[in-house]
Predict the structure.
Amino acid sequence: MSIVVGVDPAHRSASALHLAALLARSSGTELVVAAIVPPGWPTTAGSADAEWRSYTTDTAEGALDHAAAVLGSSVAAEYLRYEAPSARRGLIGLAEERDAALIVVGSAAEAQPGRIALGAESDTLLHASPVPVAIAPRGYRTEEGSRVSRVTAAYRGTGASAGLVLGAAEVSATLGAELRIASFAVVPPDSGTSGAGLDAEEAIADTWAADIEKHAASLVRRVAQLEDAPTISGVAIGRGETWESALAAVEWRPDEVLVVGSSTLGPIARVFLGSHATKIVRHSPVPVVVVPHGVAVRER
């Protein structure tokens, strides 16, 4: 097993590398650091293709040298160029060849510092990947030698998300990390002239939170019965007027990761984010691991 992390030859960033190193150290897994380069034309294409291949090779090697400098000797890693028509196909192909447990990527360049944004390549990767995809916030950094201390599973109170929590429990045990269950809800501000609208919204949110805590307590008991049960650090409920404030309503550790599951509307064994999960990913202050629906179910 391995962890595949992609580096962009055209945009050097250390964020994905720091996240990959954190996960590799925590799990004792080797890293495969890959720069995806386009395949060349047939040799009959002439000198123009030779010059292009030389340029892409040099650029990729520069990105891999940068990655080696960032990672140093903190984790065991293999560095390679991998030919594919796109970064998405390259990372998925390499993950399948190496039986990777995880693909790690960074955020798009337009992401705000400390936040996650999906670019065209990362978005298509999420929809096509048969394995979980970890996404680092822009500018993400970790302390040297640090490990994951807690895994938070985003729970929606459904049977599918219950499977995700149990899968996250196994991940927590593998990483030697605590497990937390968290749910998030947006309660919009009152748009009426009286307080009735807000009162109704708050009442609904209170009922929802009580239901979530009840169901989560049942999940906690199931997790505690697992053979390799992780330490459970509790249940968190985040409520706010926006998704940003809802996620900010709970505390986060610098060495924490948030696990989010695919929508059940998506194809089995592929990542398909529902609208709520997409908002959670975009506003998460910590790295996010997005798990394909089929994988979450099989890990139960």
